[in-house]
Structures are given as C-alpha cells and as structure tokens.
Amino acid sequence: MKRLHHKQQSDEELMVQVMGHHASFSAKQAEAALVELHRRYSKKLLGYFIKMLNKDVDLAQDFVQEIFLKLMEKKHLFDPDKKFYSWIFAIASNMCKTAYRHHGKTVSLHPEINHPQGLAENLVEKRLFLIALQEGIDNLEHHHKTVFVLRYLEHFSLNEIAEITESSLGTVKSRLFYATKKITDHLKHFDPRFETTLFKLN
C-alpha cells in the first residue's frame, strides 16, 4: 500500500509519526512530519502569541520555537483520537498563562472583529470604536481574555475552547458571557443594541 505524502495526511496522522510508535516510521519520516506540522501551524500560533503577549513579536516568535520543542517533549501525551489543533493550542494557552503569572504579561489586541455597519462610513467613529473595544478587552481578567481571544479572534468553538483551557463547557460559557457583557457595556454609547448583536455566544 502506497504511503500518503505528508501534505495529504491529517494532523493526527503526522503526529503519530512524530511520536514514533510504529517501527515502520523512520526518524527521517518523523522529522518530515514535524516539519509539515510546523508549516501548518507556525503562522497561526505566531498570530495567537502576538495577541496574547502584548504585541511582543520577538517574544511571540520565541514562543513558537518553544512550543515545537514542547511538542517533542510532550509527544507521548498526545492522544491520536483527539484533534491535534486543540492539543497544540492547549499547550499554547498554558504557556501564555505561565507568562502572565510570572511576568505580568497582559493581553493587548489589535481588534479583528468587524466594526458595526453603522460606523462604516464614519472613520472617526470607527477609530473611536476600535479604541474603546481595545480598552474593554484590556480591562478583562486574563482567563476572560483567553476565552474571548480563542472565540472571537481564533474562531474556536465553545467545546474546543473547553478542551484547550481544560475547563468545563459551563465555565467557558460563563467566562465568555462575562467577557462579552463587560465589553458590550463599555461600547453601549456607540449603540445600545451591541449587547445583543455584536457578539454571538454560540
């Protein structure tokens, strides 16, 4: 049976090769699988780290290198029946949590949420809206910021966020509800309807 090219294989199939559980996988194949995973995820992880580490690009790049070292260190912990992207983002989330605890790193985001249609033609109001949104996010506690970033900027589902943050679905919903409520309260002077229209919890 012909072996699939790495680019045709799933993340999970590649990770199994990295783990080297099967004698049929050579060290060269494991290395090639790791290179492919790096190609698929390095840019996405870099974007996530930049958002979570106060836009510190150099530190974010260091974290990308470190997370792939951690991947090798923790490869025996990967469950091939689970999604690789949830597993790697769980590691990334924990790295940011550790950085926050040890160095007081705060999340500072360049908002990527589409501005409301009513502000589309008013550049001044659009800019003021983005500044206010930034302030609202900055004022959140770290664990609330984490679920907000994963949901609205990285577009993970609630179940995926629960897996990534090692929290219950109820906890994720509660944190997300609190985060969006606090931010929409901060933005009400633009339009009171934002409370129900700007962010979708589901």
Characterization of this structure:
This protein folds into 2 domains: 6-103, RNA polymerase sigma factor, region 2, helix turn helix motif (Rna Polymerase Sigma Factor, Chain: A); 117-197, Arc Repressor Mutant, subunit A (Orthogonal Bundle), CATH 1.10.10. Helices cover 65% and strands 0% of the residues. The protein has helices at residues 11-19, 27-52, 57-73, 84-103, 123-138, 142-153, 158-165, 169-187, 194-197. Helix 1 packs across helix 2 and helix 5 (123-138) crosses helix 8.
Short description, anyone?
This protein is mainly alpha-helical and 202 residues long. Helix content is 65%, strand content 0%. Helix 4 packs across helix 7 and helix 6 (142-153) packs across helix 8.
Assigned CATH architecture of the largest domain:
Orthogonal Bundle
Number of helices: 9
Characterize the largest beta sheet: strand count, sense, and whether it forms a barrel.
Answer: none
Coarse morphology: elongated
Q: How much helix, percentage-wise, in residues?
A: 55-70%
Order of helices and strands: HHHHHHHHH
Q: What is the domain tally?
A: 2
Question: How big is the Rg?
Answer: 19 Å
Percent of residues in beta strands: under 5%
CATH fold node name of the largest domain: Rna Polymerase Sigma Factor, Chain: A
- Structural class estimated from helices and strands: mainly alpha
InterPro entries: RNA_pol_sigma-70-like, RNA_pol_sigma-70_dom, RNA_pol_sigma70_r2, RNA_pol_sigma70_r4_t2, RNA_pol_sigma_r2, RNA_pol_sigma_r3/r4-like, WH-like_DNA-bd_sf
Keywords: DNA-binding, Sigma factor, Transcription, Transcription regulation
GO biological process, one term: DNA-templated transcription initiation
Pfam families: Sigma70_r2, Sigma70_r4_2
